[in-house]
Amino acid sequence: NGEPLPEGMRLDGGVLWNTGAIWRHVDGERKLFATCATTSNKYDPYTPEMIKRAGIRAIIGKGGHDEACLEAMKEYGCVYLAISGGCCAVYTPNCRIADEYEPKSPPTDNQRLKYELHEFGPLFVSMDAHGNSLFRERAEYARSRKPAIYEKLNIRS
């Protein structure tokens, strides 16, 4: 909507993680129980503008983004780092909630968290600042193989 980011939230040169987290206040501290990536393409309508206006240099998520997002990554120097979906047990131990934006009590789905990540991964660059996309390449390969697979399985398209 063109509104400024919440006070104290700086993304310039930073990383945006499309994630969901399960956490609670326990004994006055934020305790993180689980966190992992959520599907990124649901944010496609907003991502090019976020890259441009907020100066994001990397996005962590699963499933990739569309061509408009890839163009914004190319124009502004951003990469997409794919995470293995469903691996909360691998990623959560390497995360710590560093800060809350818009603190609410009780926490809500719209809570914005700042994480500190230590020895975080595995991740792999699947969309880069040169316009390359492993998601696009694999989709093209799958489409090219479809007729032969259908023929071998005796499926009419």
Helix content: 25-40%
Task: Please count the beta strands (DSSP E, at least 2 residues each).
Answer: 8
Please provide the ordered H/E string of secondary-structure elements. EEEHEHEHEEEH
- What is the radius of gyration computed over CA atoms, rounded to a whole number of angstroms? 18 Å
How far apart are the first and last residues' alpha carbons, in Å? Answer: 43 Å
Structural class: alpha/beta
Largest sheet: 4 strands, mixed
What is the mean predicted local confidence, pLDDT? 87
Number of helices: 4
What spatial order of strands do you see in the largest sheet?
1-4-5-8
Low-pLDDT sequence parts: none
**Coarse shape:** globular
Strand content is 25-35%
Describe the fold and architecture:
With 157 residues, this protein is α/β, with parallel strands linked by helices. Helix content is 26%, strand content 30%. The chain contains four helices and eight strands. The protein has a four-stranded mixed sheet with strand order 1-4-5-8, with helices on one face. The protein has a two-stranded antiparallel sheet with strand order 2-3. The chain has a two-stranded antiparallel ribbon with strand order 6-7. Helix 1 (47-54) packs parallel to helix 2. The N and C termini lie far apart (43 Å). The relative contact order is 0.16.
